[in-house]
Amino acid sequence: MNVTNAATHQAIEAVWRIESAKIIAGVARMVRDVGLAEELAHDALVTALERWPVDGIPDNPGAWLMTTAKNRALDRLRQASLHARRQEEFGHEAAVLREQYAPDPADRLEAAREDDVGDDLLRLIFTACHPVLSADARVALTLRLLGGLTTQEIARAYLVSEPTIAQRIVRAKRTLAAAKVPFEVPRGPDRAARLTSVLEVIYLIFNEGYSATAGDDWMRPALCHEALRLARILAELSPDDSEVHGLCALLELQASRIPARIGADGRPVLLLEQDRTRWDPLLIRRGLTALARSEALGGARGPYALQAALAACHARARRPEETDWEEIVALYDALAEVAPSPVVELNRAVALGMAFGPQAGLERVDALRNDPALANYHWLPSVRGDLLFKLGRREEAREEFLRAAAMTRNAKEQELLLARAAEALVPGGKLDGGSA
Description:
The protein is an all-alpha fold. The chain has 20 helices and two strands. The longest helix has 29 residues, at about 5-30.
């Protein structure tokens, strides 16, 4: 592959990362089958890989991919309609085929009028979060379709194996197709029943954008912005649901830090070293307002509201030394009660180290070292390295940073961890501190 073709392929990959969810959602509205929609969207991607190196990148690559995928969908619908007519001629079940592949235009128009959220992406989330699927399958499928995450990235987010995630996704698409699940935003009790999975999906998509699992980029801001947009839509859709506003608050506050998380040299900047004047004040205000609304609705102890309260502690501190770490420890204690997980315990250990000294944090981290869920989680040795460094155990700290660097698949994170390993042995050296 020559340099020009390589650059074109990189551009296609970048466009696909940003646009794939919209393309799949737009096609799914036409064909009413998320598995088929993903297949047709990938057909458009293959066409781009064949044609763009020759014809050049279009002025609007996202629109080009969408149009190509929709044309594939129209071809498929025409074929299905033709097949239905032929079946009708022979007395077969043409009505069933027409209902599945080519519903009456008047029916589609009426469905569009009844749907109070004109957003294909939101329809896609609610469809993939249908109760016919298990909770794990709902999340895995929606992350795949909406976030464009690979099975590796989803497995990393859930700390489970790739084959397990791959099987969940394949089975989920088959199940939705077999059940003929409608492509819609449900109403009433059906909507409420799916909200938990929908919120979790949006949360994980934001997290993947905030700290990319793999690749050359520290962050994927487009995923953060998409997750935040969807959370805001949900907040309008469910104005009385405290956890929806809790999630909105959390994402607004976390997103406020995005401009400060990368330095002028392109390197990641951890929380305690960030220039807080670069935090977005509008997003902070929006986040604090959403948190207050969640608490007013009685959701102060919801898992998203608690995490938003943690983010608010940082947002309210103008300087790192003003952070109320004891309050953060108390919030992690509450979070561990309502949503226990090894990752929550690891974050609590960081807070303990900041509030009561590195030895307190190290004792808690060491208690987590044999937890199988954290066996391949690079932040465990990274946190341990930071605490060891603060205790003056620099050689041990260096080994932990090197171990963490070997575990991550994100190039920027690896650079950061290797730099921390090198700095650990510099006399009088001071490490950048804090979490991401």
